[in-house]
Structure to design on (167 residues):
């Protein structure tokens, strides 16, 4: 008896194998991916506020000696991995295409409010990669949260219908 991928090779060119490469910026996102990422942002914010004992995201700061390190908090790891799994981190974003984080973090409502879905994706990609590359020399992720930028991304992903295809 033929296996499903053997009977229709044009549909399964790699015989149903799991891909090891990141998604492309040209690959469309699905609503379930964006809603899940918004939830990961919310959960991470809640966990960081509780862990560092602050009430407002603007008070989230990381300095040498701050314990635990942000990347030791499970919700942060879930966000970093979730951004990749949800297709926000893409193999074909070049460093020169990354978003200027400081410009966004100085005027988050204005800057993120004007971004379309591809720009939001690029912003999340930039935050995730910058955090990975920071290697303990600061936390771009905490800066994104303390500026309110990631929360605005989450809000837009949750409720801004202009980002989504019409039914």
């Amino acid at each position: 008896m033929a296996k499903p991928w053997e009977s229709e090779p044009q549909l399964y060119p790699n015989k149903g194998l799991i891909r090891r490469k990141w998604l492309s910026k040209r690959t469309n996102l699905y609503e379930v991916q964006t809603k899940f990422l918004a939830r990961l942002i919310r959960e991470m914010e809640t966990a960081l506020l509780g862990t560092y004992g602050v009430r407002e995201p603007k008070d989230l700061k990381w300095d040498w000696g701050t314990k635990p390190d942000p990347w030791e908090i499970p919700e942060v790891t879930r966000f970093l991995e979730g951004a990749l799994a949800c297709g926000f981190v893409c193999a074909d974003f070049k460093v020169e295409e990354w978003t200027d984080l400081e410009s966004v973090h100085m005027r988050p409502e204005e800057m993120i409010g004007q971004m379309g879905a591809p720009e939001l994706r690029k912003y999340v990609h930039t935050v995730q990669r910058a955090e990975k590359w920071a290697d303990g020399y600061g936390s771009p992720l905490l800066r994104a949260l303390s500026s309110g930028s990631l929360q605005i991304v989450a809000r837009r992903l949750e409720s801004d219908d202009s980002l989504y295809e019409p039914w």
Q: What stands out?
A: The chain has one domain: 29-160. Helices lie at 4-7, 31-52, 74-85, 101-106, 108-113, 117-134, 140-146, 149-159. The chain is about 50% helix and 0% strand. The CA atoms of residues 51 and 68 lie 8 Å apart.
